[in-house]
Each structure stands twice: as structure tokens, then as C-alpha cells.
Amino acid sequence: MNEILSAGRDERDEPAEAPRPVRRQLPSFLVIGVLSTLFYLALFVLLRAATSPQVANLVALAVSAVANTAANRRFTFGITGSDGAVRHQLQGAVAFLIGLGLSSGALALLDVAVPDASRVVEVTGLVVANGLATVARFVLLKLWVFRKR
Known about the structure:
Elements lengths: L1 H5 L15 H27 L4 H24 L8 H29 L5 H27 L4
Helix pairs in contact: 2-3, 2-5, 3-4, 4-5
């Protein structure tokens, strides 16, 4: 009976093992998050030299979010294969939008409070916003994007 139910399914598109408990997912999520944040901030600083803080933030966050979702898909949630990858990226875009709202809001507040803020101040504001977005991202990835169907 199991063979009939699983006919036509690609095993590579299933989690590598039974759903991983949060205590096993968090270390991977944290490592990926730290690396993604460093990549995002470096890209932001590079782009910021040529454009406004909001444009630099949008581009840096979009690029790092795609990489982050792909890495979490594979390493945190154990999903391999290409089936569902586009859907996962589109669902991950919701987490991206939350992060974009928080980081754009932080930059807008800085622009009002400290109009000539240094890059260090901008990056500090982005780190705080990114920390808040990370909590929302894990919850969305765990409960919606990569949940066991």
C-alpha cells in the first residue's frame, strides 16, 4: 500500500529524515543566519557607497534572502532536490518582506533622528532590525515554508 501512495513522488524532495526537532534545527539556522547577515551587511556597505540606504538595503536583503532560504532549505530543514524550490523561495519572500519592512523602517527612523548617520550607525540599526526579522523568519520557515506536508 505504501508503494502505491508514494508512486510518482521523488524521494529527493522529501526531508532527508523525519522532521528535525527545533533543538537540532537551531544550530544550523543560527550559523546560516550569521553568515547571511554578514553577507547582507557587507553587500549593504558596498552598495551604500553608490546608492541610497533604502536601495542598498533592498538589493542586499533580496540577494541574501534567496541564498538564506536555499541554505536553510537544505541544511536546517533537510530538503534536497529541486521539487518545491520555487514555491519555497516564493513563500520565503514573505519573510523577506517582513525583514525589508523592519530594516527599511529602521533606516527611515535613523534618517529622521540622525539625518547624517554614519555607516556604523546605519549598520547598527540594520543589525537590530535583522535580529527581530530573524525570529519571524525562523517561525515562518518552520511552520509554513518547510513544514512536513
